[in-house]
Specification:
The chain folds into two domains: about 110 residues, Aminotransferase class 4, branched-chain amino acid transferase, N-terminal domain (D-amino Acid Aminotransferase, Chain A, domain 1, 2-Layer Sandwich); about 150 residues, D-amino Acid Aminotransferase, Chain A, domain 2 (Alpha-Beta Barrel). It contains eight helices and 15 strands. Strand 14 and strand 15 form a beta hairpin. The radius of gyration is 19 Å and the shape is globular.
Length: about 270
């Protein structure tokens, strides 16, 4: 089911800039009992993306009302909110666009997430690195060709459920569709996303949960060997929402789920 600007629709005009250039951004939220989890975080990330991508004014009030109504109608599942710059402009220029278009879509939560949460997952290093761009880093924009390639390579193997993704300088950044944390003792690490990657809503929620906890949180650049030397690794997104990692390539994590057990009741 899809809504476009508050109306049930399935089609966009061919000159919409999401089709022409991937000119837009999105967020994916979990609907539970008709309510949108972490709604303020999702609205903040949408507004931040609009500001950083120089979008004309989005009707945020209408969008919020549409999201609430849509979630109440669906009751459960995943809500995808896409903002397109709309139709118009000449070539790459956004000048003359008719205004942002609000798109809402619904799909079920992937059924495998419940199994993976109970049993854990394996990660395989992706052969596709992420390019570094401080202007686009953190934004969930619609230019997802890197992730499409990462997923295509992951689909060709049968061992791993997710990919561990580095940037083009060899720093660990994220997974194909998830953020990553790792723990060594009471120190918890997560990658610096100033130059690549997506700053996920569940990642933000976990960072808030860790404030005032027994764990000390560190943000920074890290190479693959540093993650492999950790005691524990988890991955997260708003739909998973948090999964324990059993293995990365040849490295097995069998030493317990201290961080996972701490986060799991509130994720």
């Amino acid at each position: 089911m899809y809504w476009i600007n508050g109306q049930p629709q399935q089609f966009l005009p061919l000159d919409d800039r999401t089709i022409q250039f991937g000119d837009g951004f999105f967020t994916t939220a979990r609907i539970k009992q008709g309510r949108i989890e972490h709604l303020p975080f999702h609205m903040e990330r949408l507004k931040d993306a609009a500001r950083r991508l120089l979008f004309a004014s989005v009707d945020w009030s209408s969008l919020l009302n549409e999201m609430l109504e849509f979630a109440e109608l669906q009751q459960e599942g995943a809500l995808k909110v896409i903002i397109s710059r709309g139709s118009g402009g000449r070539g790459y220029s956004p000048a003359g666009c008719g205004g942002p278009v609000r798109i809402l879509g619904h799909r079920p939560i992937p059924v495998e997430y419940a199994t993976w949460r109970a049993e854990g997952v394996t990660l395989a290093q992706s052969p596709v690195p992420l390019g570094r761009s401080s202007r686009l880093a953190g934004i969930k924009h619609l230019n997802r060709l890197e992730q499409v390639l990462i997923r295509a390579y992951l689909d060709r193997q049968t061992v791993a459920q997710e990919a561990l993704v580095l940037d083009d300088e060899g720093n660990v950044i994220e997974c194909c569709a998830a953020n990553i944390f790792w723990r060594t003792g009471h120190d918890v690490f997560t990658p610096d996303l100033r130059f690549a990657g997506v700053a996920g809503v569940m990642r933000r929620h976990i960072l808030e949960l860790l404030c005032g906890s027994p764990f000390e949180v560190h943000h920074g650049e890290a190479f693959l060997y540093e993650v492999k030397e950790a005691d524990e690794v988890i991955i997260c997104n708003t739909l998973m929402p948090v999964l324990p990692v059993n293995r990365i390539d040849e490295r097995s994590y069998a030493g317990g789920r201290t961080l996972f057990d701490f986060l799991s009741p509130n994720c």
